Amino acid sequence: MQDQQLQDLADFIASSPTPFHATTTLRERLIAAGFEALNEREDWQLKAGGRYLVSRNDSSIIAFQLGAEGALASRGLRLIGAHTDSPCLRVKPQPEKDQQGLWQLGVEIYGGALLAPWFDRDLSLAGRVTFRRADGALESRLIDFQRPIAVIPNLAIHLNRGVNDGQAINPQTDMPPLLAHSLEAGRDLRALLAAQLQQQHPDCTDVAVLDYELSFYDTQPPAQIGLEGDFFSAARLDNLLSCHAGLQALLNSDGEQPCLLVCTDHEEIGSASCCGADGPFLEDVLRRLVPDDAERIQLIQRSLLVSADNAHAVHPNFAMKHDENHGPKLNAGPVIKINSNQRYATNSETAAFFRHLCASADVPVQAFVVRSDMGCGSTIGPITASRLGVRTVDIGAPTFAMHSIRELAGSRDPGYLITVLTAFYNSAQLI
């Protein structure tokens, strides 16, 4: 079962190089399982026991099942939240560079990326492209070159003797990827995108590319590694691992309880967007589920959110970066994340509930508190809790190398997370 779950996670990550592709993958899997797609521009006719999904900006998605008649009002919602975006290199609007006979693209750093691991990797390009057809109609489609088309070569140590002494990386001058020789006149990114559109979507002929949102990504596939397969290595584990676990839990659930999965974009840059956790997407959906204000407040106060986002495992080479009593280990189960300054939204009641849930599901559980002399990251948990007033527990699978081009998790932890999140969706009683 573990190998099957890891392979499914690997397939999910490989098909999701951008938030747009992750949302499409989630949508396709949900529809295949019988969920009905809703359109925010239309009226919704929801039925007891129904299973539905809705997406916004092609990069965020909410899926929910209503449970039995009257269950929503009486039992509350079991919500799981994650995010679809990861730190990466985004292509600028006018990116073409012709330097030393080589064609490069200027990039902007999206989120808090570890830059050094991006050098000397086989990179591809994917994202959303908006274009005009010959009849004047505007349309957007997703593209993915899939094959390695770019690289950011390191400067040889002979020309950069101080590189191993902590030399800074300049994102403006050091990071533009190299794609080709520029000997041929008229190299143009939009023409390249138009050709790729036609190749992937044969109906997209005679189009003018107007704009795009494109990200470079590493083409190395996910892998189970280690002498005995103890580890799982992949790009974008933060936070596609949680998106996948939430999806699998929803698909595995018995359908008796009202459940909701929300996977939003832009967490890595603050979530402040129309489709981010600090935007109105989730609130808009809840208003359509329960139009009456008083009834909706009652529903929210009966509900609980599990904010699932990866946690920092204690690194054997840098153990001093953790509080000595709060160093989560790989393959030791999900981590409850706690911060007195509300960088995480966990409180004693929600932490106790999650501990009880793990014990009931025979899943080990850990805790993380940042060192008192270090700053703390955050998640969608505090944002969603403050916008909705919903009780929240912040948890996540322990990982190494968070925000690197390639991250590392324990091979048993994805299964642990799916098990406890499935138990959460099936839980008859919330706190």
From TrEMBL:
* Annotated family: Belongs to the peptidase M18 family.
Q: What is this protein called?
A: M18 family aminopeptidase
Q: What class of enzyme is it?
A: hydrolase
Q: A GO BP term, please?
A: proteolysis
* MF GO annotations: aminopeptidase activity; metallopeptidase activity; zinc ion binding
Q: Which domain of life is it from?
A: Bacteria
Q: Which UniProt keywords apply?
A: Aminopeptidase, Hydrolase, Metal-binding, Metalloprotease, Protease, Zinc
Native organism: Halopseudomonas aestusnigri
Question: Which InterPro entries did the record assign?
Answer: Peptidase_M18 (IPR001948), Peptidase_M18_dom2 (IPR023358)
Q: What is its EC number?
A: 3.4.11.-
Q: Does the keyword Cell wall biogenesis/degradation apply?
A: no
